Amino acid sequence: MCLLIDEEGRGRYLGEMLSGLGLDTSLTSGADEAMRFCNDNSPDVVMLSARANGAAPKEFVKRLRLSSRGKPPVVFLFAETPDTEMFGQSILEGAADVLMMPLDRDLLHFKLRQAGIAV
Length: 119
What we know:
The chain is of the alpha/beta class and 119 residues long. The protein has 5 helices and 5 strands.
C-alpha cells in the first residue's frame, strides 16, 4: 500500500504510475490527514510532495518515524525544483530518496525495488 501526499495535484500521474506498478495507492492533500491515514493503515510507502501542506518535509518525516507502530513506511520526496538543503535535512530524518519530476516509470520502479518495496 502506498500513500501519495500531494496538495496541488501535480503528482497525479505519479499515482497512476504507482498503481500501474501494482501498488494500491491512496491520496491525501496535507500532512495532518496523511498522519491519520498512516496511523490507521500502515502504508509500506509514502510519496511526499516537497510542497506538502501543513509541515516541512523534514518535520513530517520525523513525525512519521516517531509515531509509527512497528516498521515505519519508506518515504520518498518528489519535487519539481531542487532544494538541496531541504532534501538533505529530510534524508537525515529518514526519507529514503528524492525523486525529481517529471519521473519515468522505469526509474520509479528501480527506486522502489532499491528501497525493498516488492512491486
